[in-house]
Every structure is written in structure tokens, then in C-alpha cells.
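Sequence and fold
=================
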Amino acid sequence: MSVQSAERPVAWADQAHHPSWAGLLLSRVLTFCWVEVAKIRHDRTELYTRAIQPALWLVIFGETFSRIKAIPLGNVPYLNFMAPGVIAQSALFVAIFYGIQIIWERDAGILTKLLATPTPTTALVAGKAFGAAIRGLMQAAVVLVLAAVLGVRLPLDPLLYLVAAVVIVLGAAFFSTLSLTIAGIVLKRDRLMGIGQAITMPLFFASNALYPVGVMPVWLQALSTINPLRYEIDALRGLLIGTPSNIPMDLLVLGLSCGVGIAASARLLRRLTA
């Protein structure tokens, strides 16, 4: 009896459930994601101050072009057409400068400590990217409420909003990894700020945010085909205002872009601490 009782704990230990590698990776991603989201509690005014520029686009640009009727949209009011583009833009503006924060963490010594842990760099990047994406989603929600106040007719089906949230998160996650990739190349905040400002508006204008792809010059149409923001806006329009769109293709492009962005930024992240 004593021999059996001594052996039982060993048998139980052998049968203990150990988390899989995928489970551990997911838990690390969720942990870093939560850390990024929790930072909003310390400065909630960021959500409102960042909403000023998208609000100006909707109130001034949207209302003005609604009166001019210069862009052929059929029976779709211009403000309705423009609202999904501004929603995507608001998340883009949050994500595209996210690399500045990672450089600040490098300067404060935080990034070195994080990279010294057993956590895979991919999990670290993915967690931070999706954390930034959720912050962008919160920003987009503020703009969505503003669009409803201005009279944009939005659907009542909660499932559509759930899919729209996935679209916004994937799009913002890609642009945050793009910012992290640039940070791993330029290594300095001022350089990243300049590049971020230089590419933000071209990304916006080379999408279908303000006008349909069909009215663009041929060369701009070609550029828009490789712009993930175009696919994000296309999906949001189909979900929020019911215009024709290829949502499965849009989700595929955004998912692949996000995966490529995570892989690229993970390879370059350690250059910040070299």
C-alpha cells in the first residue's frame, strides 16, 4: 500500500494537462493585447481628441459634397457613402503612429526586458498589434456614433456590426504592424513621425474612402488594388450601408496582410535593441 500511494502522485503528475504550444502562444498574445488596451484607462481623453479630425471630415467635407452632388453615387447619399471611409480612417490614424510607442518603450528599457522573456517575438508583436487595433476600434465606434447623429442610416442587425468590428481590427492591426516595421527600420521617433505623416494621406486618397474606384485615374486604380485600406472600406460599406461588396475577399486580403505585417515586424523588432 505504501508503495502504491507513493507512486500515485507521479502517475497523476504524468496525466496532468499541459497547455499546448498554440495555447501558450494565444495566451501570450491575449496578455499583451490586454496590457495595451488597459492603457486607455490612464488617458481616456485620447479617444475624444483623436475623434476631432474624423468629425471634421464628416461634418465639413461630407456635408459640403452632399450638397454639391459632384460624385456619381446613384441613390446613395454622399454622407452615407463617406461614413465607412472615415470610420476606417479614424482607426488608421491611431494605428499608423503606433511604432512611436514601441520606440518609447525601447528608450525606457521596457522593450529589452520584454524581448528577454521566453515569449516569442511573434506573440509580442501580435499582442501589441491587436491591442492597438482594439484601441482603433474604440475610436471607430466614436465616429460611428457621430455618423448616426448626422443622419447616416445604419443597419440594426448586431451580426453586421460584429463582422464590421473584425474588419476594423484586422485593418488596424495591419497598419500598426506597418508602423512597427517602419520603426524597426528607421529606429528613431522623429523619422517615424515624418514617414507616418508622409504615407497616411496617400493611403487614404489611394483608397475608395472619398470616391468610388471607377472615377479614379487608371494609375490610381492600380495603386488602390494593393492598398489594404480599400478592402477594409469596401467591406465596411457592404456591412454598414449595404452597397455591393465582396466581403469574403476583403476579409481574406486583410487577414493575409495582417499575417505578413506581423511576420515582417517580428523580424525587425530586435533591431530596436541591437
Notes: Residues 121-149 form the longest helix (29 residues). Residues 16 and 151 are 57 Å apart (CA to CA). The two ends are 59 Å apart (CA to CA). Residues 1-16 have pLDDT under 50 and may be disordered.
